[in-house]
Amino acid sequence: MDRLELINKGADAVRNTPLLFNAYKQFLIEDWGELPQGCFGCQFNNHFSQWKNQVLNNNIIPMEKKAENNNKTYVLKDRGTLKYLYGDVWSSNSSDEDWIRYLELKPEAKDLFYVLPVSLEKTTEDVIIEDDYKKKELNEMPMTEDVVVDEVVEVEKPKRGRKKQA
Prior knowledge:
By secondary structure, the protein is mainly α. It folds into two domains: 3-56, no CATH class; 75-142, no CATH class. The protein is built from seven helices and four strands. Strand 2 and strand 3 form a beta hairpin. It is flat and about 70 Å long. The relative contact order is 0.07.
C-alpha cells in the first residue's frame, strides 16, 4: 500500500482500521522523521490533513527538532517571566546568551534573577544575592517527621457513620 491509496481510504477508515493506522504511522515516521508530540489520537485529524496536503502537493517537510536548553546557568525569580523587546521574547526557556544580550540592552533587569548567567560580570551585590538564594535553597529541604521526632504519634481516626444521639 502506498501513500495515495492510504489517502484515498480517508481519515475515518485509517483511524478505525488497525492495519491502516499502523501504515499511516510508518509513513509519518518516514516523511516527518518522528511521530508528532502530544496525544496522537486527539490530534489525528489535524495531522492527517497536514500530511495529506504535503503528500498531494509533493511538499513533504520534516519536523523540526527543538533544541533543548539543558545547560542554563541562571535562575529567574519568577519562572513565568516573559520579556518583550524589539520583537524578541525572553523567557525561562531562553539561553544564557539571549539573557546576556537582554541585560546588555537593559542593565536594570538584573533584578529579575536570583542567579545571573555565568559569563556575565557580577558585582558584589549580585554575588550576595546568589549566596542568599543558595542558602535559602538548602534550608527549604523538607525534613521528615521521623528525623525531627523519634516517637510515633497515633492519630485516632474519626468513626464512620452517624453519631448516636444521647
